Amino acid sequence: MRRLLLLLAAALTLGLVASAHANVDDDGSVLTRTFRSAALQRDWSYTVYLPPRYNAEGARYPVLYLLHGNAGNANDWITQGHLQTTADALIERHEIPPVVIVMPQGGTDWYVDRKERMQSAFLNDLLPDVEAHFAVSNQRAGRAIGGVSMGGFGALRFALLEPGLFCSAMLLSPAIYSNEPPLNSAARYVGVFGDRQFDPRVWHALNYPALWHGYFARTWRVPMFIAAGDDDLTIQAEASALYTQLRRAQNPAELRIVDGGHTWDVWRGLIGPALKYTLDCVK
Length: 283
Known about the structure:
Layout: H1 2-25, E1 29-37, E2 42-50, E3 63-67, H2 76-79, H3 83-92, E4 100-104, H4 118-133, E5 143-148, H5 150-161, E6 169-172, H6 200-206, H7 209-216, E7 224-229, H8 233-248, E8 253-258, H9 264-278
């Protein structure tokens, strides 16, 4: 009897240890990687969310690239957007597949090749580095993109410029301004769209309408989740106009206008539905 009790106690202890390890595995993890970017000619970092029970030796995971806003930080998605807890919950409920989410540090470059060669760094340096160091898809059907504010500007450009790379896009309050940015927009004073002062010609050359014809001349279509707060008057109008243009061109899109302004209080609440829509395309 004493031996039986000892065996039961040992089994219970092992069970508790296994359970504790299972609980740890049930949470996603966040880490940072730094590598040398040839386009930027400097070290560059990005934050990575790995889903629960991530297995580097198994099948490749779909990957979502998320771009932050002007003067923001790659970690804003985690610290202010609560991305990790939202993704963990959606994966646990099988509402999205297990996904790796990559968040590069973009500064105030607006993801174009002006102040720094940020567009080239993203397309030519970041994607290959992520695919070499993490078990992620290197195919269009397993790769999506998104962004907030300035990051929405960049995500829309990349989706239209390289639709063969991304199967879907999420644009949260995208700072796209089909005409010109308002006077209070960061686009006017970050030193990207002009050498010494804002130059409308540079803005129009790099904004999404300049990519429209080339995008629709190709065979791929990128479904887009577009959202903004109703107090963010100019951007919600631009978001609505983009949605209308896409739908008229028979490009899949979803639009959500919610209460609030140009803040993480709005974007935090949109991340869940945005992830579900955007990751519906991955295989």
